[in-house]
Design goal:
32% of the residues lie in helices and 32% in strands. By secondary structure, the protein is α+β, with helices and mostly antiparallel strands. The strands form 3 sheets. Strands 2-1-6-5-4-3 form a 6-stranded mixed β-sheet, with helices on both faces. Strands 8-7-15-14-11-10 form a 6-stranded mixed β-sheet. The chain is globular, with a radius of gyration of 19 Å.
Length: 333
């Protein structure tokens, strides 16, 4: 079995170089660690980018201009082969916050001149000692909630900063047990297949099969975090199921695990149609929105203890006719 140490070291060097780069040498640094056709799938408004020039210009440069200096506060780091392609590719995953000083506008959001935290999750595919593909999820809606912008309503779950694992052991810089990683992947997929098979509907009896009763669901901007079965059903699945019609599961780009941690992302994972007041923003519509979703999990023995979820809500809402970034710009003009 692969030990992923070469891939992990490459990604760690890449991230460190990006964090310490200035806007003038971003292209050079990205090119050093990535393949010629390196491409990234990013949350709105970055979206799909290909090549070092565009990734530097449209992803990292705006972040660095608005929030420099950036400090990466990593909470989860692991690597694994991809179940989606029958374990033929290796991916390195990391999640945490980017800490920065919000001194310049960010996509029309006015700077506060204060320290801010941006919740992120990244995925990098490594082949022949080069990063060939990536995904970058930045929870801009959660950031907007932290700033208490008027275009964002209250959430049904807890609004705050989503911390790393309760066990404080999510940084797998060293090789982990293959057996434990397989247990995590099997549990994740068992839970997911049940949920998809039931049309994205959840009951307490479903949760009891796969989740600890003191589970914590670290939800995305627009929804918030929920604790225990009761909190999860009230804070997330109830409003989600009541106000969205499940149209299609579109599959995942990546499904992998290592040790007690694992996860996936899709592009998109789901197609949903608003049929009610989802997040206090939508109403009945014929428009169908794409949900690009990240799920990371921590397994504790034979059940899931924690789940971190990022949803590209800005993209989903734009699909159904609601552009929160544009609404916010208009309020400031």
């Amino acid at each position: 079995m692969p030990d992923f140490q070469t891939e992990k070291l490459l990604v760690l060097k890449f991230l460190n170089a990006i964090d310490n780069a200035d806007e003038n040498n971003l292209v050079e640094i990205i090119s050093k660690y990535t393949s010629e056709n390196f491409n990234m799938k990013c949350t709105h408004p970055f979206n799909e980018l290909e090549g070092a020039d565009k990734i530097a210009k449209y992803l990292w440069s705006p972040i660095k201009k608005s929030f420099k200096p950036i400090q990466r506060r990593m909470d989860i780091f692991y690597a694994g082969t991809n179940l989606v392609d029958n374990h033929s590719s290796k991916w390195v995953v990391n999640m945490g916050h980017l800490l920065g000083s919000f001194n310049n506008p960010f996509f029309g959001i006015e700077p506060t001149k204060k320290t801010v935290m941006l919740w992120y999750c990244e995925f990098y595919k490594v082949e022949n000692n080069k990063i060939t593909e990536g995904a970058f999820f930045l929870d801009i809606l959660k950031f907007m909630q932290h700033l208490k912008l008027s275009v964002v309503p209250d959430s049904t779950g807890m609004i705050g900063f989503n911390p790393g694992p309760k066990t404080h052991d999510g940084l797998y810089f060293e090789k982990q047990s293959d057996e434990e990683g397989n247990k995590t992947l099997d549990l994740m997929m068992r839970m997911a297949n049940r949920l998809i098979g039931e049309g994205m509907r959840t009951t307490v009896s479903d949760l009891e099969k796969d989740w600890h009763d003191d589970m914590i669901w670290w939800g995305p901007g627009g929804i918030g975090a929920s604790y225990t079965y009761d909190g999860y059903l009230k804070g997330h699945t109830g409003p989600f199921e009541e106000n969205l019609e499940f149209i299609e599961f579109s599959g995942h780009v990546l499904e992998n695990s290592e040790g007690n941690f694992g996860g996936w992302f899709g592009w998109p994972n789901l197609k949903m149609r608003p049929k009610g007041n989802y997040m206090g923003l939508t109403q009945n519509t014929d428009l169908i929105g794409e949900m690009r979703v990240v799920d990371l999990y921590r397994r504790d023995k034979d059940k899931i203890a924690e789940n971190w979820i990022l949803i590209d809500h800005l993209h989903f809402l734009k699909c159904v006719g609601i552009d929160l970034l544009e609404r916010n710009k208009k309020l400031n003009n």
